[in-house]
Structures are given as structure tokens and as C-alpha cells.
Amino acid sequence: MNFLLMGLPKSGKSTLFNSLTKSKKQEIYTESRFGTVKLPDQNLEKISQWYETEKKVYAEININDPETNLNFDSSKDFIEKRYVDEIQKFDGVILIIRAFKNDSVVHPYGDINYVNDLEQFMIESRLIDIQIIERRIENIKKNFKSLNKQEREKDEKNIKTLSEITSLIEKGESFSSSSFSEQHKIIVKDTFLLAKAPLVVIVNTDEEYDLDNSQARELKKLLNQDTRLLTIPLKFEEELSNMDQAEAHKFRLDFNLDNDEIKDIFPEVLSVTGSICFLTAGKKECRSWLLRSGSSAVEAASKIHSDIARGFIRAEVIQHSELLKYTNEKEAKDKGVIRREGKNYIIKTGDVVNFLFSV
Ligand SMILES: Nc1nc2c(ncn2[C@@H]2O[C@H](COP(=O)(O)OP(=O)(O)OP(=O)(O)O)[C@@H](O)[C@H]2O)c(=O)[nH]1
Ligand SMILES: [Mg+2]
Asked: Of the bound ligands, which one is closest to the alpha carbon of residue 16?
């Protein structure tokens, strides 16, 4: 899964990227950076301890930190224009809104006002979506000439549907509202639009400062229900990510902060994308796999290898917590607690799955 970091210039995107990927701090990045981040998984920790496994592999997400905007003085954009072309390769957005005060870091609008910034983001994201849809319409029109009457009628209908979506977005309608019909939803099912993209919003505060309830409420009012909102002092966390654990823990206690607030991002990323993690486990390797929630056993198999899905016979499944009740895998097998499931079994978070297949 690919996540794009979005935010006004100097809001803290690179600071977050550095903490997540343990990269070195620079003031300017002339190129956009890609990084992989391991998804913490308590279930994987437990099961690999139980197996005394040699190798532990985490599921990962990819994040992209856009290059530093060198036209800072004139840029009041959350995203550079070129990203409008590239945005289709992303599965979600982590948006950073600045709440930290720091006179030496200029805010593009002059004042620190995160409710206003979020409002601006909503406006800009609508404009981007409209551009994305316009491009689709242009592409359809380009092919018009080569089409027969029937095909052309179908495309004309699609253009009409797409134009309706544009008007709804212009009006600021939420994609989850009933204004969008099934037909609207189907036509943009595989198109990345900010109006429906999984979104985690991080308010980047100073370490001593948290949002009060009324401020948080104002922000939430601007967001749709599915969006997750977090408050994290990103610079503080970046500094701590370079310390050893004991030292970092002491600093956190001084500021009354929970353990590693950056980690709070991961459950939210899973939640907004509707994802879960299942496990494959053994003495050699225990591994956590990212899967869309509601996926079947055969869909889970295809995450590992297309051959396993193709030659799927059955899945042996047990919840990790159930497995941990036994001394070893053999005992669990002998007791018959490992279930046999077919292709259509819906995989749950924390399921330990062994696929049987033949090709
Ligand atoms: N005091 C304070 N400074 C911060 C905080 N977060 C970021 N900064 C500083 O603000 C400056 C900009 O942060 P970056 O992470 O580079 O921001 P960015 O969004 O990547 O900026 P561009 O790439 O230029 O768009 C850096 O000097 C950071 O150290 C914070 O929470 N508190
Ligand atoms: Mg940056």
C-alpha cells in the first residue's frame, strides 16, 4: 500500500518521514523520497516468540515524501501540481496540518491556524479531484472517433456520470453521502480521488501543547466520519527516534506523553484502508501479511503467491491466541483445534494460516 504525505510547505512532512523511516534530517530534499515502513503487529510478536522463530517479517506500507517546495514564498499548495498526474498510484493520504509555533519556520498563510488550513485542504482537494475527472473525460473523448455508435453511446453516458460527480464534488458533497449513487461510485471505483481516499490527518503540535476538545471538534466537523485525526508532536518524535529507548522514554515521561506516539499512526492506517493483518507461522519464519478486511482465504493465498491461490486445496486456520494455549504446534494439531477452511473462509485479524495447495 502506498501512502502520500500531503501538507502545506513546512508543515512537517519530511519530519514525519524521517521518524517513520529513521532517515537523516536535512532542511531541503531536492528529490521526492520513498520509504518502506514496517507495520508493528503484537500478534506477530507473540506468535514468533512462541515458535522461537529464526526470522520475523513484518507487513509493510510505502510512504512518499514529496521534494521540498523551493518556491515556498509563492506556494500555498498542499501538493505540487505534478502529483495530480502521479496520484493514481497511491492508496491513501497522510495529511499533516501545522499547529506548532516556531517563528523561524514561516507559515505560507502567515498565521498558524489549523482549522483554516484544513478548510483550505478541503478546497484544494476538490480542485484536484475535479482535474482528475476532467482528465478522464478528455481521455474518453480522444478515443471517440474510432468508436462505433453503440460504444460511443456508452462513453457518452459515462461522461455524463463523470460530469455529475464533478458537480457534486464542487458542491462539497461527501463521497459517503447519499448524493452519490451506486452508478457514481462504480465508475470511479478504481480511480483515486481525494474525496474518497483513505485519509489520516495528523495535527503537528509542539510537545507541550495538545488540542482542546472544542478545537478537535472543529477539525472533525470538516472531515468525513471515516477520516482519523491524530495529534502528534512530530519534531519531538523525530528527535526521540534518534535516541536510545531508555533515554527517549525518560523524555516522554517529562512531557507526559504516551509511548511513541508515531506508532498510533499504524492502527489508523489499517482502519482507514479497511485492512487487517493475518499471519503465517513456523519455526523458520513468522510473517505478518496485509489484507483487505473481508477477504477470503483464496484472496489471502494470492497475497503470498499466485500459485498458492491457483492450486488452493484448503487452509488450516487458528486464531493466534488460541494456538498460544498449547505447548507446541504438534499438540494443537493432535487436539484437533486447527480448523480446515475452504476458499471462501473470511480471514480474520490475527489468524494463523497454513495454505495447502498443489500445482
Ligand atoms: N518547533 C517545531 N518545529 C517543527 C515541528 N515540525 C517541523 N518543524 C520544523 O519545521 C521545518 C519544516 O519541517 P519539514 O518536516 O521539513 O516540513 P515539510 O512539510 O517537509 O516542508 P517542505 O518539504 O518544505 O514542504 C523544519 O525545520 C522542522 O524542524 C514541530 O513540531 N515543532
Ligand atoms: Mg519536506
From this structure: 1
Residues 116/222, Cβ–Cβ less than 8 Å: no
Per-domain boundaries in the chain: 2-41+59-109+196-271, 125-187, 294-357
Distances (CA, A) of 169 to 127, 131, 145: 9, 11, 29
Residues 213-221: contacts with CB within 8 Å, 24+ apart? 215/114, 215/115, 218/115, 219/97, 219/114, 219/115, 219/118
Closest C-alpha residue for ligand 1 atom 11: 10
Nearest ligand to the C-alpha atom of residue 103: 1
DSSP letters for 339-356? EEE-TTPBP-TTEEEEEE
In tens, the pLDDT along 282-337 reads 999 999 999 999 999 999 999 999 999 999 999 999 999 999 999 999 999 999 99
Output the nine-digit C-alpha cell for 215. 478545537
pTM of the model: 0.93
Pocket test residue of 15, 18, 107 for ligand 1, highest count of atoms within 8 A of CB: 15
Cα–Cα dist 288/278, whole Å: 6
Alpha helices (H) along 223-292: 234-240, 245-254, 265-273
Backbone angles phi, psi at 95, to 5 degrees: -100, 135
Protein residue closest via CA to atom 16 of ligand 1: 14
For the domain covering 294-357, report its CATH number. 3.10.20.30
94: number of Cβ within 10 Å: 28
Centroid of ligand 2 to alpha carbon of 190 (angstroms): 29
Residues 2-41+59-109+196-271: name the CATH superfamily. Answer: P-loop containing nucleotide triphosphate hydrolases (3.40.50.300)
Per residue in 13-35, pLDDT (tens digit) is: 999 999 999 888 888 899 999 99
